[in-house]
Amino acid sequence: MTTAIQRGLAPARAVLPNGAVIIAKHSPTTPAVTIHASLRAGGEFDPPGNVGLSHFVSKTIDRGTSTRTAIRIADELDDRGVSLSVTVNRHATWLVCTCLVEDLEPILSLVADLIVHPIFPADEVETKRREITTLIRQDEDNPAAMAADGLQADLYGPLHPYGRRLRGSVDSAATIDQTALQAFHRERFRPAALSLVMVGDIETGRAIDVAARAFADWAGPPPAPSTLADVATATSRRARAIPMMNKVQADIAYGFTSLRRADPEYYAYWLMNNILGQYAIGGRLGDRIREREGMAYYALSFLDANVIAGPLTIRAGVNPDNVDRTIAAIDQELQAFAQDGPTDKEMTESRQYLIGSMPRTLETNLGIANYLQTEEFFGLGLDYDLRVPDLLSAVTRDAVQAAAQRTLVPSHATVVVAGPYAGHLE
Questions:
Q1: Half-sphere exposure in the Cβ direction for 60 (13 Å, CA)
Q2: Is 238-419 CATH 3.30.420.40?
Q3: Bridge-partner residues for 1, per DSSP?
Q4: Of 370, 383, 3, 380, nearest to 205 (Cα)?
Q5: pLDDT (tens digit, 9 = 90+) per residue, 213-263?
Q6: DSSP secondary structure letter of residue 426
Q7: Helix (H) or strand (E) holding 414
Q8: Among 31, 212, 282, 401, which is least packed by CB within 10 angstroms?
Q9: Other C-beta atoms lying within 10 Å of the C-beta of residue 134
Q10: CATH second-level architecture of 2-214?
Q11: Closest residue by Cα to residue 15 from 186, 223, 195
């Protein structure tokens, strides 16, 4: 059954008999189609003994199928001027590319082959193992990456999927083999785990028909559901330093667990985070820490409300001599936000910014495809783009202040500093 919405993005959505979800959006701006395939096969599903397995899969899934070698795959893409990217996060693996309209059928057939029939050739696995090991070692030499990973581990615990490093460790990368990759693929790459979005100069009915043919023979039961659990909210301050004395910059990761994406208070938190560390030159944090006091190379915040209560993270890159002053300034800004709430001007401008920035995110086929995947993943509905302005407009100043009072509590913050810092964190 196919349903369509007639205003806004107006995508069409179909569920194939095997459970795969197909979403198509007609966008005649360019004679091209963006293919965005998402599978619920991210880092949360890594076995405890094989952390980084989903990331390894993302690096090797395009290195050969039961009917195509890696060279043939590369040639078929190159012949049509197509570049394929494969990425992974905690929850999903994505295969994304853009092709000309007339190439949609063969390119989608190729993408389907990669999703359904990868074989993870042993020689390709060894080549990618070296690349992945290099990436992990680069992370371990990067204060920003170490601070961010350290904060996640401290907020969620090193065994929780949100607390584990997505790429794993050098030791875990050394143990992952072809058998483990094939087992992960069998368990997680199932038709019901697929959400395929196509955006471009093609009628939605035709796009869905092409996709239905490409995945018609794929069968299998749904994968096991997610079992992610929320973690307890911290009730005391935690702080630690990761010494990296050969560096010139210290990176601060300061944060809290926040809320689920499905929480009705999400829109108050979205506005709160924008005011705190996103709007204009980095919100209140950027204005004070970077612009007025000149203590940081960057200062901003991120809200990752997700399938569980994700982190609200404040990040700053500073001269090591400014670590203590910067953390104190963050504490003060959070206390002031909770005590006084946002100003009417901040509310108006942040609301206008978030609503006004939506059209810019939807200017390209890829932007639209990313947006539609987010709608599908969180079950927001095909008309979500139409409802966002009203959802944000309904948020009151008191609701934003209440969100700050619940979450932005310095005495409950978790703080990690990585770099050449020799002080004592409190």
A1: 31
A2: no
A3: none
A4: 3
A5: 999 999 999 999 999 999 999 999 999 999 999 999 999 999 999 999 999
A6: -
A7: strand 414-419
A8: 31
A9: 12
A10: 2-Layer Sandwich (3.30)
A11: 195
